[in-house]
Design brief:
By secondary structure, the protein is mainly alpha-helical. The protein has a single domain, classed as Arc Repressor Mutant, subunit A (Orthogonal Bundle), CATH 1.10.10.10. The chain has six helices and four strands; from the N terminus they run H-E-H-H-E-H-E-E-H-H. Helix 1 crosses helix 2 and helix 1 packs across helix 3. The two termini are 21 Å apart. 29% of the residues are buried.
């Protein structure tokens, strides 16, 4: 299974603009803000992995920071956190946890399908989502 290498922000349109250095020099809150904006742009029925979110936020190689940012997001922000999965297309919570069940339920309600515990990233990741947006299911 391959992951997408989408190069534009057409899939997720963050609300911020500007250039970001590959080195993390922005204050933590600014970095998290950029992550939250990317996550807000993930379309219904699609997923991105933590690394893709980091790259689109301007912080390539900072997948773990994405996890921290999601964990520290204000509840009032109502982020679609459930649309972020690991690089293998799996949910990162333990399969027997309530968080896992919640994330899976939310994704399935949006039409994301699982093969066992794995999401087909070619179908529900950036390229597949873009195809569905342009051409329909």
């Amino acid at each position: 299974m391959r992951t997408s290498s989408i190069s534009s922000t057409a899939f997720c349109r963050p609300r911020w603009s500007g250039r970001v250095s590959e080195k993390t020099t922005a204050p933590e809150e600014d970095r998290y803000q950029r992550v939250w904006e990317v996550v807000e742009g993930i379309p219904t029925g699609a997923v991105l992995n933590y690394g893709e979110v980091a790259r689109l936020a301007g912080y390539p190689g900072r997948a773990r920071m994405v996890g921290r940012a999601l964990g520290r997001a204000p509840r009032s922000r109502k982020l679609p956190w459930h649309r972020v999965v690991n690089a293998q297309g799996m949910l990162s919570f333990p399969a027997d946890s309530e968080k896992y069940r919640t994330q899976r339920r939310l994704l399935e309600a949006e039409g994301v399908e699982f093969d066992g515990e794995v999401i087909d990233l070619e179908r529900f990741g950036p390229e597949g989502a873009l195809d569905r947006i342009l051409w329909g299911p």
